[in-house]
Automatic annotation (TrEMBL):
Name used for this protein in its record: Carboxymuconolactone decarboxylase family protein
Highest taxon above the source species: Bacteria
Gene Ontology MF terms in the entry: peroxiredoxin activity
Protein's organism: Vibrio astriarenae
Carboxymuconolactone decarboxylase-like domain segment(s): 33-118
């Protein structure tokens, strides 16, 4: 099973999200293990494993999308951690979120920036 979508996805999830990603998967096990499996197989096994974009570029796109949606704070939190894990800087993430103020509005950008602030505090960055 080492080459399965599931195993590839698990490996990619661990690389990108570390413990935070595993907690999301575990939180689904008692309510909908199929959704946990789908989350591992499709986004991480199929999409994040593709060539064409680096993990850093994929996380920048994900942070932008989740910020623009404006109602995905838990997912944005996980992906801000992931973005930092794969090499994004604090300054880059601030710029991505600020850029979304143009396309998604100030409320979405404000919400995104507050989530980033929370993440930076958790990671020991004032």
């Amino acid at each position: 099973m080492s080459n399965s979508r599931y195993q590839i996805g698990l490996d990619k999830l661990a690389l990108i999200d570390g413990e935070a990603g595993q907690k999301v998967i575990e939180s689904l096990e008692d309510i909908c293990p199929d959704l946990a499996r789908f989350t591992i197989e499709y986004p991480f096994g199929d999409i994040y494993s593709r060539e064409g974009l680096s993990l850093k570029e994929r996380e920048i796109a994900t942070v932008a999308a989740l910020t623009a949606m404006g109602n995905c704070a838990p997912q944005l939190k996980v992906h801000l951690h992931a973005a930092l894990n794969v090499g994004c800087t604090e300054a880059e993430l601030k710029e991505v979120i600020l850029q979304m103020s143009v396309y998604a509005g100030f409320p979405a950008a404000l919400n995104g920036m507050f989530v980033l602030k929370e993440i930076l505090l958790e990671r020991g960055n004032p």
